[in-house]
Specification:
Layout lengths: L2 H14 L5 E8 L3 E8 L15 E2 L4 H14 L21 E5 L5 E4 L7 H5 L12 H10 L29 H13 L3 H10 L13 H4 L5 E4 L5 E4 L17 E2 L1 H12 L3 E2 L2 E2 L3 H7 L31 E3 L4 E3 L11 E6 L3 E6 L4 E6 L2 E2 L4 H16 L3
Parallel strand pairs: 6-16
Antiparallel strand pairs: 1-2, 1-15, 3-8, 4-5, 6-7, 9-10, 11-12, 12-13, 13-14, 14-15
Helix pairs in contact: 1-10, 2-5, 2-6
């Protein structure tokens, strides 16, 4: 059976069963779109159908787009990977390491052993965390009145490091800081910079931090999975007038837009006859940049936002410049060296430089790594590989 038939059956069945409210999925090779399909509803209980141009919150799928903007600035010599990041953002020079809390519940802080670099930020080895997966970050926020990164307030980036830079992998607000570095050297807000240098060249016209009226007309809502398994639409949206545009998770986009980015990476930086990134830059981004350090499971401390999270548990995984890299062949059929990540909203993508294929899968569900949605994503990716003959 052809990819179109198999994937349609798979996705339609899941939407009809109520496993997901709506799903949009696409796959591509270097030349063309291999599959496009969308099933279910943008908002459960409303009639608007999910489509390939339905606008969804990307959440942490934003990180790879920000990373591409960062690496453009590295190419141009405006940033480099290994100088102290405080060279461009002085605030990063005064960041402290959290060593615990005193008897009064106040944080105990010390200076880090080495400065934070852009490479640390892009590989999540700087020492930053998110309160969703780090109880210490949540405790610090409560003790000091520091807001969550989801508020869009600059003070949210004032959390301390959980360890000295470079010592291990820990998922956190690193790419928000990297986005701030792009702003520092470009003199532009991150969204304006990315629109001019990435989205416009790729014809990604439905990708932005601020939801335009045209995008809002096609917007899918987030749905919360309740304890009994039911999905309920919720009114949760990224702040539309934030103090900083969150390079780590603030973008809205569509499956068809994001697929253009995937195809650009597959083509080593080229799209629409334009070289958006140099081939050697894309190759650099796709290599492991944290030595023998490995990606570890994200243990959830806020179950409404995330389940315990790890892709392909038990398989060793490295990290490139904003991508997770599977070091062995994945159960989906993706060869070693594949790139991927996802977003809190249960949206996922993969890029396979070896085979020359990639894909995008968008749903709008909390908590992260929803059992039904993640399983459906894996099945979709597997279906793509099984029909590649």
């Amino acid at each position: 059976m052809a990819l179109k038939d198999q994937a349609d059956v798979l996705l339609r069945k899941a939407a009809d069963a109520g496993d997901v409210p709506g799903v949009a999925a696409m796959a591509t090779n270097r030349e063309r779109t291999l599959y496009e399909g969308a099933f279910g509803e943008r908002v459960l209980g409303q009639s608007a159908p999910m489509t390939a141009d339905t606008v969804c919150w990307l959440a942490s799928m934003t990180k790879a787009l920000t990373g591409a903007g960062v690496m453009q600035q590295v190419e141009r010599g405006n940033l480099d990977l290994d100088s102290p990041a405080s060279k461009w953002l002085p605030a990063l020079g005064s960041v402290k390491v959290l060593e615990g809390f005193d008897a009064a519940g106040q944080p105990k802080l010390r200076a880090p052993k080495r400065p934070i670099t852009l490479r640390h930020l892009l590989t999540h080895t700087a020492g930053y965390g998110y309160e969703t997966w780090n109880a210490e970050v949540g405790r610090f926020q409560q003790a000091t009145g520091t807001p969550s990164a989801s508020t869009g307030k600059l003070a949210a980036l004032g959390t301390p490091l959980l360890f000295d830079p470079g010592e291990r992998w820990n998922y956190g607000i690193n790419i928000d800081w990297a986005g701030r570095m792009v702003e520092a050297v470009s003199g532009k807000k991150l969204g304006a910079y990315l629109k001019e240098n990435l989205f416009a060249p790729l014809d990604m016209n439905d990708t932005a931090f601020k939801i335009t009226p045209a995008m809002r007309a096609r917007l899918a809502k987030l749905h919360q999975r309740s304890d009994d398994g039911a999905l309920v639409p919720i009114d949760l949206e990224v702040p539309q007038e934030p103090e900083f545009e969150a390079g780590g998770g603030g973008l809205y986009s569509t499956a068809s837009d994001y697929l253009k980015f995937v195809r650009m990476i597959l083509n080593r930086g080229k799209a629409n006859g334009k070289q958006v990134l140099k081939p050697e830059t894309v190759d650099l981004m796709a290599r492991n940049h944290m030595g023998d350090t490995r990606v570890t499971m994200l243990k959830s401390f806020i179950p409404q936002r995330s389940n315990d999270a790890e892709f392909f548990p038990g398989m060793p995984k490295g990290w490139g410049l904003t991508f997770q890299i599977n070091n062995e062949k994945a159960p989906t059929g993706r060869p070693a060296g594949g790139l991927m990540w996802g977003g809190l909203s249960n949206s996922y993508f993969w890029i396979d430089p070896a085979t020359g294929v990639g894909g995008v899968y968008l749903t709008q569900i909390l908590p992260f790594v929803d059992r039904k949605s993640l399983s459906l994503y894996y099945q979709f990716e597997k279906t793509v590989y099984q029909t590649l003959n």
